[in-house]
Amino acid sequence: MNVHQMSTEPALMSLTSIAQSIAARRFSSREATQSCLDRIAQWQPRLNAFMAIEAEAALAEADDADAALAKGNSRGALHGVPLAHKDMYYDAGKVVTCGSRIRRDFVATTTSTALQRLKDAGTIRLGSLQMSEFAYGPTGHNSHYGPVHNPWALDRITGGSSSGSGSAVAARLTFAALGSDTGGSIRMPAHFCGVTGLKTTVGRISRAGAMPLSQSLDTVGPLARSAEDCALLLGLMAGADSEDPTAVTGPVPDYTAAVQESMKGLTVGIPTAFYVDDLDPEVAQVLDETIAVLKREGANVVQVELPDQRQLTAACQLVLAVEAAAFHKRWLIERPQDYGPQVLMRLQNGLAIPGVSYLEAMRWRGPALAAHLAAVAGVDAVIAPVAPVAAPTIAESDVGNSSDAEAVIQRLTRFTRPVNYLGLPSLSIPSGFTRGGLPVGMQLIGRSFDEAMLLRIGAAFQRATDFHDRVPKPA
Amino acid sequence: MTKPSPKEIKAIADVAGVPVSIEVATRIANSIGPAFEGFAAVAGTLPFDLEPATFLLVQGAKTPNETPKKAAK
């Protein structure tokens, strides 16, 4: 069902490799773009990963990029590289649906800082990618535009809310894609689709021009084929932004240098509870095998006793529900009929949480982070599953607004939400496959603003394994 | 911290300007109940001087990398 990445087909190359190949004029931007478009034509009817495909415009941009390079003019590190992103990043003059009916015809008048920085590095636009409505759903279902399908098994979910990003990167339709992570929305699709996803520290990347869901929890980050590719993208996007005062100032680390280092001598923590409880046996086996690789590559693996993660999950739910309801209140009053049933249900939840409860959850965030950091003292990163199971079927996880929908959502996201509440970075890396051929990802959880450490460990793991290089084939 | 009852949720939603039926209020009560229960041990225990901005102070502080803990089995 899968083949290793042993082809000279441009679309099968990594982001880093195709950028270097275009710069060295071994491939043209047009060849890279056409290769992606060919794969999109083949896969899109099966996956529903793209919201919009802009083939002609992309090829025209590619020709411009090739012409510029022929004259010796490179725009940057990603000159001529075609990309598509989650359809929530404002791109001036383009429709940005946010996966919703309400914004079906919304035309952005500004361009998000993250997207603009990638454009400034030379990327070109393939189109836009599907997502859960308003980024508020962990499965990849979308009642307006249909579910996105997992390229490893079309009847399985991709995870959400960056569903199109996970599916398209896995099927090699784009070299990488922006996602967003408020409760697990980068790491879940990365896990279920077998790609690498980086949830960044709150404040690491500007959120200006990115559709908001929760101002305290929202983060911008990439889904890509490797930790090395994530490092390249993060370095281009990170840093202060006058349009977003919550983006931290100060120098941006050299992430591409970090991924060249080994994990020898580093210490990785494995939680003694919560993240190792009630795992599907195959996920548990992948966790054990991942730990074995870490040890083989020279890491010191130790047990860590983390504070009560259930309290963090509960606090995350209180904060997210209230902030999402506040953003959406006007539409909840004026256009409730235009929401999908599950998103409407979840937004209504936020109406019922008293202000004092919300503020208590916000006030506890500092002490909770301090307690976590104390628990992981001496540890460079924590390793844990992203989810307790591999991808369930689209049918079984289509819970809509049923009475047990919130419980299903909480079960799927129980390993991702504590990280969001603490604002920490986390890197999801492909770590194995089930016997049925479904990808399984593990997350490396780091200290605030220490994405470099996660990328270093992730890249070293990927030099020792080939899970990230495996490519699904059309059924 | 006690989770709000459907009746209380209906009243809160009315005050918020987004009225919901008692059926929806009941569903909301069931959905958010676990969050209230999970946070109950923290609620009402926080010190007087604790501000939400403490999070940013902790986030920005350098954490020393201390001695590794015991090796995994």
Protein architecture, described:
The complex is a heterodimer of chains A (475) and B (73). Chain A is of the alpha+beta class. Chain A is 39% helix and 14% strand. In chain A, the strands form three sheets. Chain A has an eight-stranded mixed β-sheet, sandwiched between helices. In chain A, strands 2-4-3 form a three-stranded mixed β-sheet. In chain A, strands 1-13 form a two-stranded antiparallel ribbon. In chain A, helix 5 (163-170) packs parallel to helix 6 (187-193) and helix 7 (227-237) packs antiparallel against helix 16. The termini of chain A are close together. Mean pLDDT of chain A is 96; it is low at 1-6. Chain B is mainly α and 73 residues long. Chain B has one domain (6-60). Mean pLDDT of chain B is 84; it is low at 64-73. Classes of the chains: A alpha+beta (475), B mainly alpha (73). At the A-B interface, strand 8, strand 9, helix 10, helix 11 and helix 12 of A face helix 1, helix 2 and helix 3 of B.
Task: Please render the helix and strand layout as text.
The complex is a heterodimer of chains A (475) and B (73).
Chain A: E1 2-4, H1 15-23, H2 29-47, E2 50-53, H3 55-70, E3 82-86, H4 113-120, E4 124-129, H5 163-170, E5 176-180, H6 187-193, E6 196-199, E7 220-224, H7 227-237, H8 255-258, E8 267-271, H9 281-296, E9 300-304, H10 309-334, H11 341-351, H12 355-363, H13 365-375, E10 381-385, H14 405-412, H15 417-422, E11 426-433, E12 439-445, H16 451-464, E13 470-472
Parallel strand pairs in A: 3-4, 8-9, 8-10
Antiparallel strand pairs in A: 1-13, 2-4, 5-7, 6-7, 6-11, 10-12, 11-12
Helix pairs in contact in A: 2-3, 5-6, 7-16, 10-11, 10-12
Chain B: H1 6-16, H2 22-39, H3 54-60
Helix pairs in contact in B: 1-2
